[in-house]
Amino acid sequence: MAGRYFDEWTVGDRIAHDIRRTVTETDNLLFTTLSHNPQPLHLDADYAAGTEFGRIVVNGTFTFALTVGLSVGDTTLGTLVANLGYDKVTMPKPVFIGDTLRVETEVSELRRSNSRPDAGIVTFRHVTLNQRDEIVCQCLRTAMLKGKPS
Q: Domain MaoC-like: where (predicted)?
């Protein structure tokens, strides 16, 4: 199991996740159509060419989902009770097909669960960067994690 239990985290812990992902046209097309998002900026190369970006922009909700996904192995894999919420999701720069993304995580808050004595609440700050080290997505993820077994 790769994830950490609640008791193994401290505020300020940082992780530069090893897994990186180069975004493909297929990733963007499948995610956009599966989520029923008809935005031509994500699907229509001719339309996108006429925008300020000059090309297709990757669906932001794909970028957000990838942000969380790239972090799971080192944070909550096997120790998660539930993700409780996502806050302050921002996308300061667009993602384009062919961009390679990586994620860094910092623990910003910890507290014991009031309802579950065997669990705790961790708030992770995830930051996604492209190959130019530009921030393309950032968010806070609040997760309930199992306590370390005795």
A: 11-114
